[in-house]
Amino acid sequence: MTNQPRAARHVPVLAREVLQWMALAPGMAVLDGTVGAGGHSRLMWEAIQPEGRLLGIDRDTMMLQFARQQLPDERVVLCQGSYADMEELRSRCNFPQPDRILLDLGLSSDQLADKERGFGFDAGGPLDLRFDTSQGIPASEFLQTASENDLTAMLQDLADEPRAASIAREVVLTRQTNPLRTAGDLAQLCERVLGARGTGPKDRHPATRTFQALRITVNRELEHVSRGLAAARTTLVPGGLIGVITFHSLEDRLVKAEFRDESYWKVVTPKPIAASPAEQRFNPRSRSAKLRVAQRLPGNSAG
Ligand SMILES: C[S@@+](CC[C@H](N)C(=O)[O-])C[C@H]1O[C@@H](n2cnc3c(N)ncnc32)[C@H](O)[C@@H]1O
User: Fold this and answer.
1) What is the number of the ligand 1 atom nearest to the C-alpha of 63?
2) Over the stretch 32-51, which tens digit does the pLDDT of each residue have?
């Protein structure tokens, strides 16, 4: 377990839209597969009282501690694991088939602020980037062992990094004498290759794309999204709703493709819901957020 959390700083994105499109009602059972700091969960919890039930899942034990601060009611069940395993987690906790599932993908601002795992560029601690440090390998180990071709492909495929090959080359050259151990080591390498302005928007650090690609890789995030969506087909109550908020085009593509499968889903939001201009000004994280909602076909019992 990492450091003891203080007050959560994460601001839930599209909160009003989630409440509106998820059509919550008293007495419902809600599964929040990415409970994070509990921002969305707290709002949903209020909307399903009295008699509502909520199961919050997160891979990161630090985030579950934040969530418990937001959701002190002991009827709220919090559980460490991946939403990809939602059916097993739900039955282990004796939680009913949910009427609503929410997945708010990606990273929390509280993880970005955690100096222990290197999510932020200025973190002096080890470059780990895992949500669950008991699984897989830390990002520093991946950078030390991956081939130059694999590093290039990762940066191209997961981050559209135009200078992918140059960064991969520099990683391979640097690691021979100086393994990249901290977030600062990698951030400096990206600055060296890309210059202070980088290849992204002006207000982004040049290492933003590289960190994103690495985080998605070490956490196998796209694989979990695919497995989670497949699990939702049968975990959700027939007629129930699932809402997914994505921040990355590859994630959104997976969600869109899944919801197009008419043997399981009826699309509720034909176009993804984006944050209002006011929210985008107030919370820059929301700029790339897309919410899609689908209904499990009422008569569907396939699985
Ligand atoms: C954007 S944050 C969620 C914020 C939350 N909705 C709130 O309002 O506070 C994403 C969270 O998902 C968690 N996460 C990422 N992948 C996961 C997975 N496969 N299963 C469960 N949790 C995951 C992260 O640890 C992080 O806490």
Assistant:
1) 27
2) 999 999 999 999 999 999 99
- CATH 1.10.150.170 location in the chain: 133-218
Residue 83 near ligand 1, beta carbon < 6 Å: yes
Contacts of 39 (CB under 8 A, 6+ apart): 8, 10, 11, 12, 15, 70
Span 133-218: which CATH code? 1.10.150.170
The reported pLDDT for the residue numbered 114 is 84
The CATH 3.40.50.150 portion of the chain extends over 15-110+221-296
Mean confidence (pLDDT) of the chain? 93
Domain 15-110+221-296 is of which CATH architecture? Answer: 3-Layer(aba) Sandwich (3.40)
Each residue's pLDDT tens digit, 95-121: 999 999 999 998 999 998 888 899 988
CB of 104 shorter than 6 A to ligand 1: yes
Please give the radius of gyration of the chain, using alpha carbons only, rounded to the nearest integer. 20
Closest C-alpha to ligand 1, atom 8: 39
* Ligand 1 atom 3 nearest Cα: 36
CA atoms in the 13 A half-sphere facing the CB of 208: 13
Which residue carries 């960190």 as its tokens? 211
The span from the CA of 192 to the CA of 24, in Å, is: 50
Please tell me whether the overall predicted TM-score, pTM, comes out greater than 0.90 for this model. Answer: yes
Would you say the CB of residue 33 lies under 6 angstroms from ligand 1?
yes
